[in-house]
Amino acid sequence: MIACVIPAYRAGATVCAVVSAALRYCDAVVVVDDACPEHSGDLVAAEFGANAAVRVVRHERNGGVGRAMKSGFAECIRIGASIIVKIDADGQMDVGYIPRVVELFEADPDLIYVKGNRFANTDVLGRMPKLRLFGNAMLSLLVKFSSGYWNLLDPTNGYIAFNGLALAEMDLEQFADSFFFEISVLCALGLKNARIAELEMTTIYGDEQSSLSIRKVAWEFPPRLLGRFLRRILLRYFVFDVNLGTLYLVFGTLLLVGAGGLGVVEWIQSAVTGLPRSTGTVMLVVLPFLIGVQLFLNALMYDVQFAPRSDHVFALRRPLVRVRAQARPAAERDWDEPRPIGDSLRRRADRHDDARDE
Q: Helices in the chain by DSSP H: which ranges?
């Protein structure tokens, strides 16, 4: 069963159209009304109330996109969904990519997670607002450190999909409630060395205003990313395993701390006595410090070299799969053109069209 989760907040004008489009490719659509002031859940229930494939989950209080997604995930798991796709309610995500996502999961049973990638096509660099592009670049770099997925090109993309069976075995509460949700998912999967894939896709940048402020990201995200980075290092190199990277980190830390401490002491003594330190004393500080820096660089290279790559669910050895999708925006697509989506998906789309015509 293919299920779609649509978190809805201030989406009254677009949510019903998104649900209708998602039904072309999904067996079930779960709309999560996250205390939407525009009553998105009521609008969906009124228009699709007779359709058993559409379910509405309501929150009494707004909990954020992460909390909405966790409620939607729980409902999809309850109905036995094997593939769970997230689609935003604002209509900016093209549901035409869902068949490509399904193909990835069907081709690789060990695949856990599929996410969108806006940057495989360099044309997006010209369309994305410059401030947003810079922010995404800086945030992506920090996410690489925190998650361990060094070869991800677009870790902050919100077009995501899960293997439902694997998701059912995870603790949903480990995912963040807020806009940090997508990043927290990557960090949790990175600890398991989970096999993931990226799907190239385009994103439309219009005049819409993001509800996530740059100031909020700059203030809240770095501490969270630092915490997850330290947790990953502790678990991967000191709890789950002890390896060459562990030795690099231990001896590099000892040398840096020792050299730094000795340097501070010698500098204070030199300032108090007015006597410069000898060349031997200086080298006794500089040489261990440089060796410590080199060991930390070796630890970084080790971490990048053994970044999550997968042959099976939790032991990754192959590079991330990147699939070049060529789907066009929904407004430009001829729905009668052939699409490599499998017989079941094609029949579902045809049935939806027939019902709409009636």
A: 15-22, 40-48, 65-78, 98-107, 124-127, 130-147, 164-168, 181-191, 214-234, 244-273, 279-305, 342-357
Pairing of strands 321-323, 196-200: parallel
Is the predicted pLDDT of residue 273 greater than 70, yes or no?
A: yes
- The residue ranges of every structural domain in the chain are 2-237+309-357, 239-305
2-237+309-357 maps to which CATH number? 3.90.550.10
Residues in CB range of 279: below 8 A, 6 or more apart: none
pLDDT tens, residue by residue, 184-217: 999 999 998 898 988 887 765 544 445 555 677 7
The residue written with tokens 């998912």 in the block is 185
Q: What angle do CA 215, 218, 222 make, to 5 degrees?
A: 155
First to last CA, the chain: 25
CA dihedral sign of residues 105, 111, 114, 118:
negative
- Distance, C-alpha 167 to centroid of its chain: 14
pLDDT greater than 50 at residue 126: yes
Q: By the 8 A CB rule, do 34 and 56 touch? A: no
- How much is the pLDDT for 119? 75
pTM of the model: 0.80
pLDDT in tens, 69-97: 999 999 999 999 999 999 999 888 889 88
Coil, strand or helix: which one is 54?
strand
**Burial of 9 from C-beta contacts in 10 A (0-12 / 13-18 / 19+):** buried
Nearest 5°: phi and psi at 5? -105, 130
User: Between helices 342-357 and 98-107, what is the axis angle to 10°?
Assistant: 150
Going from the C-alpha of 201 to that of each of 15, 96, 334, the distances in angstroms are 21, 10, 18
Q: Does residue 167 sit in helix, strand or coil?
A: helix
